[in-house]
Design goal:
By secondary structure, the protein is mostly helical. It has one domain (about 15-190): Up-down Bundle (Fumarate Reductase Cytochrome B subunit), CATH 1.20.950. It has helices at about 5-10, 20-40, 50-55, 60-85, 100-130, 150-185, and strands at about 135, 140. It has a two-stranded antiparallel sheet with strand order 1-2. Helix 2 (about 20-40) runs antiparallel to helix 4 and helix 4 packs across helix 5 (about 100-130). The radius of gyration is 20 Å and the shape is elongated. The chain binds protoporphyrin IX containing FE (2 copies). One protoporphyrin IX containing FE binds near residues 25, 29, 33, 112 and 179. It holds the Pfam family Ni_hydr_CYTB. Its cofactor is heme b. GO terms for molecular function: electron transfer activity; heme binding; metal ion binding.
């Protein structure tokens, strides 16, 4: 019994994002998925006693510093990503999306860039204004980008938290949409970002 053709069958050479953009996507995704819980759990001083009881003395500060380091790395990679996005444009969709869905996708992708860069800058500025140490993976101290001002630090870190709530919500919607494309629509959108995808329609 033959199955009804899917949009995937109709598009054997599905276009994919440039390999550099795919690599950056998955590296940043892993870092964000790691640093969100580090932020939610290990930047709250109420959690210091059980963090130290579970992971040992000094663990709270180490995990806090790891959060800041990963956040600064995300910022650097997002700037590279902005450049890569302009250098290697997104390929056209193999199966055109409904216009509203394409608009929503474009908006949510742009929102990721703005929220991730904004959150990292707010975190960096908030820590600078506190002022607290900024050791980057124990290798060097990042410069302070704002003069000491405890009240301003509180406002900047409050805004940082709001941005990160928005990022967490967007990640949930984004992953849901990616899986919907893969499992329900089967239209090749997931494969545009899959690690081993072949580039069908080059934008070089
Ligand atoms: C885009 C990357 C980042 C993400 C996704 C992120 C995520 C988070 C999250 C989820 C929280 C907990 C918010 C809350 O529950 O109140 C948090 C808190 C915090 N983050 Fe980040 N963060 C990032 C980058 C940074 C950077 C670059 C720094 C500093 C260099 C930083 C410093 C802090 C600090 C100091 C807190 C505690 C704020 C407070 O106690 O009010 N974060 N972050
Ligand atoms: C958790 C952090 C994540 C962030 C911040 C993120 C961000 C982004 C951004 C900004 C894009 C637009 C393309 C680009 O400029 O690179 C994108 C595309 C994409 N992402 Fe993610 N992503 C994340 C996780 C995931 C996960 C876990 C999946 C799979 C389950 C996924 C699947 C996809 C797919 C399939 C596309 C291509 C969509 C298209 O071409 O229209 N992403 N992502």
């Amino acid at each position: 019994m033959s199955q009804a053709p899917t949009p995937q069958d109709a598009a054997p050479h599905r276009p994919a994002h440039h390999p550099a953009r795919r690599a950056l996507h998955w590296i940043v995704a892993a870092l964000v998925i790691a640093t969100l819980p580090l932020g939610f759990v290990f930047t709250d001083f109420d959690n210091k006693p059980w963090t130290e009881a579970t992971f040992g003395a000094g663990a709270f500060d180490a995990l806090y510093d790891l959060h800041k380091s990963i956040g600064l790395l995300v910022l650097a990679l997002m700037l590279v990503r902005l450049w890569a996005w302009r250098r290697w444009a997104s390929p056209p969709y193999a199966t055109p999306l409904p216009p509203q869905a394409e608009k929503a996708a474009r908006f949510s992708h742009a929102a990721f860039y703005a929220l991730l860069i904004g959150a990292a800058l707010l975190g960096w500025a908030g820590v600078s204004a506190y002022p607290a140490p900024l050791p980057v993976f124990g290798l060097f101290e990042a410069p302070k980008i704002v003069a000491p001002d405890r009240a301003l630090s509180g406002r900047l870190l409050g805004a940082h938290a709001l941005f990160t709530f928005a990022i967490a919500a967007l990640v949930a919607v984004h992953v849901g949409a990616a899986l919907w494309h893969r499992q329900a629509r089967r239209d090749g959108v997931f494969e545009r970002m899959a690690p081993g995808a072949r580039r069908g329609a080059s934008q070089d």
